Amino acid sequence: MTLTSFGPANRIQRSAETHPLTWRLRDDGEAVWLDEYQAKNGYAAARKAFAEMDQDAIVQTVKDAGLKGRGGAGFPTGVKWGLMPKDESINIRYLLCNADEMEPNTWKDRMLMEQLPHLLIEGMLISARALKTYRGYIFLRGEYTTAAKHLNRAVEEAKAAGLLGKNILGSGFDFELFVHTGAGRYICGEETALINSLEGRRANPRSKPPFPAAVGVWGKPTCVNNVETLCNVPAIIADGVDWYKSLAREGSEDMGTKLMGFSGKVKNPGLWELPFGVTGRELFEDYAGGMRDGFKLKAWQPGGAGTGFLLPEHLDAQMYAGGIAKVGTRMGTGLAMAVDDSVNMVSLLRNMEQFFARESCGFCTPCRDGLPWSVKLLMAIEQGKGQPGDIETLLGLVGFLGPGKTFCAHAPGAVEPLGSAIKYFRPEFEAGIAPVSAAVPPLARPIVVGA
Is the dihedral of CA 43, 47, 50, 53 positive or negative? Predict the structure, then answer.
């Protein structure tokens, strides 16, 4: 898998003006350590933020730039920062970096942490200054052992250089940063489940409100941002709002650039930094190179396993939240997966729903019981033992596990690809329904939405 921002045949030239996230990457894929990072203008944005900007100015700049969360939800970062309390008497606040990248088909944060660890540290340092947080944690997926090693080394380098710890850059501001490796739960991608896990509790999402900005880690105000989100902050501070907004393509409502990728049986699977607003077709054909010889594109997901399937005719949609919403699904993480014509959609969905059912925290009934139910039905259909009404039952589960029906967004994300797969490929599901003469007692009575 290509973990670079190069285009086809390395024809895309990266620069600080067009590729704020990836222009510092080395061609050999090795990590950029402190000396090289500073030689490439690293920590210049942090020095500017500490010397020339107060906390409110940093927050306002990020808000004006239109930076949105890059973890999948797309919430405006400056708005989230603005929710942190202004009360100066609250002197214990936390900044958490959500690096628990467990979304299937997604590996963008891994590249940043392994190859540009100081970019994340600089982004967190500026963010901590803006939020007046004295301590930060990078909550890292436990399987990312190389990222953990590189981040810990970078933290030590930054400490030795006076860029972390006490009295940073002579400002009187203190900020400690720690790398915390998780125990491997997909649900920790939900910010309050992450907070519970960091505290040593079971990784269940919390009821909101109160939101983490009011009551977060150990009951203190806390801000949680994604790796890629925080890595955008230095460039915004260094080069300004107008420049950052100019990076996106015309028509895009999202600003800046995005790490996007393609996996599956494409000729050039990989990861690229591209402006918001490029089309899915550009990403698929110009960067991923289209399908390998002998395969045809059957369907694709625009941003991880928790996004709905699209058809080849949807490739002309622009890659930003609103553009993908126009064709009926979500942008998600922006790393797409190609499904080729050899794949049976029932088997693919059974595999996906098994993953989501296993990763449910089990807190709320629709998710705890509904996802395993979908797996049982899909297994029966996959084996040709489905019963009349099973497809309607699956569609009922899609409705009952949809947005607003469960405690967090885990189940809605899990059933979105299921609903879209039935919508576009229903004959493949119908083919697994056994003849009536071979019927056995149904697994359950069909659910009728609205009954």
Answer: negative
- Residues 429 and 338: their CA atoms lie apart, in Å, by 20
What six digits make up the tokens of 13? 């030239």
The string of pLDDT tens digits covering residues 42-69 is: 999 999 999 999 999 999 999 999 999 9
Nearest to 316 by CA among 274, 280, 363, 355: 280
Average pLDDT of 207-224? 94
d(CA 197, CA 195) in angstroms, rounded, equals 5
- Alpha-helix runs per DSSP H in 103-185: 108-115, 117-131, 145-160
Q: Does domain 21-245 have CATH number 3.40.50.300?
A: no
Where along the chain do its domains lie?
21-245, 251-340, 345-438
The per-residue pLDDT of the chain, averaged, comes to 92
| Residue % of the chain over a pLDDT of 90 | 86
Which pLDDT band holds residue 442 (cuts at 50, 70, 90)?
A: low
pLDDT of residue 72: 81
Architecture of domain 345-438: Up-down Bundle (1.20)
Which tokens belong to 403?
Answer: 């947005």
What's the confidence (pLDDT) of residue 446?
52
Q: Which residues contact 434 (CB under 8 A, 6 or more apart)?
A: 384, 385, 386, 387, 440
From 3.40.50.300, 3.40.50.1820, 3.10.20.600, 3.40.50.410, which CATH number describes the 251-340 domain? 3.10.20.600
DSSP string, 194-230: HHHHHTTS--PPPPSSSPTTTS-GGGS-EEEEEHHHH
